[in-house]
Amino acid sequence: MTAPVKEFVMRHDFKDVPKFKEGVYQYSPREEHFNIPWKMSVVRRDGFLGVYLYCDQLKTNKSIRVEFSIQLITVTGKKNQLHTSLTYNTKNYAWGWGKFLDWKKMEKDYMIDEHITVETHVKIIEITGIKRKKLKNFDATMEEYSDLVIIVEDEKFHISKFFLADQSTYFKSLLTRKQEESEKPDTTLDDCKSEDFQCFLELIYGEFLASQSTYFESLLSKKQRGSKKSEITLDGCKSEDFQYFLELIYGESPIDEETIDKIVHLADKYKAPTAIRKCEEFLMNNSGKTLKEKLQMAKNYKLENLKTACLSKINTVEDIRSVLSYTTSEMDPSVVGALLQKSLSLLP
């Protein structure tokens, strides 16, 4: 499975379009994606429809490079779309097109019952400015109490071999093979960020015994000195993502809108059921992702409880439209079937 990317979709129905006043902006509700608030706007000006995407509340040291497209759509599938690449910052927080579409053409081809539907597809390429504080350290300060070193992007994570193997069948198999080579083998992980792996370990690991008891701290420190540690190097993985992953499996709570995609990707890759369950619980109970986004994640990572929870919230024709993809082949067949049944039940 390829590494997760930061993408999201926003859709809003703007009503009473013929009543729009010249030069007065109409806004969609604000939505939060990856810990960043976004909104859309439309405006009637000089015989054209203007459309814009806003990135709200950017701090002075933060910028966001994106690719996005804005389109007008109809129930028949007809659409008018424009695409661009740009960077949001404190001086440039709104981008779009003042002459997106001729107003009369919009009324003729895209307005239905005085409504228009605007949809924006956004792909975040890079976010700069704010670095997340680690919830748990796996650096050299933990060296005395660990028996395994995992190297990701040249960053070393000092952890417990037993605990990691207990939480991840992937690492259990890997460490079993390594055990015959040395008493404490080193392992390098590929396709992973160290920060995400940090989150993963924090969730499943809880607190180290040594960090909670001075007696065991002294005892373990004496036994650990002089012993050779295993090392595993992971390639194809970012150290930042691996940090998140470790934090999660070590008992911390690193999951939020910005980290969920990275953590669930690694939890699935490393077959860590505890981490997967906690990711699924976040998506069900705390995430601001759309139903469409959640259903896609349920398909990608086989999150059956999430899929069931999403389907239970789809009760209207508009709900069904909001989760449909233009290419139904990309959707879970069982979800397509459930949506068909729901649509039939809504027929008069």
Automatic annotation (TrEMBL):
Domain MATH: 1-122
CDD domains assigned: BTB_POZ_ZBTB_KLHL-like, MATH
Matches recorded under PROSITE patterns: BTB, MATH
Signal peptide: none
Domain BTB: residue ranges: 146-205
Protein name listed in UniProt: BTB domain-containing protein
Natural source organism: Caenorhabditis remanei (Caenorhabditis vulgaris)
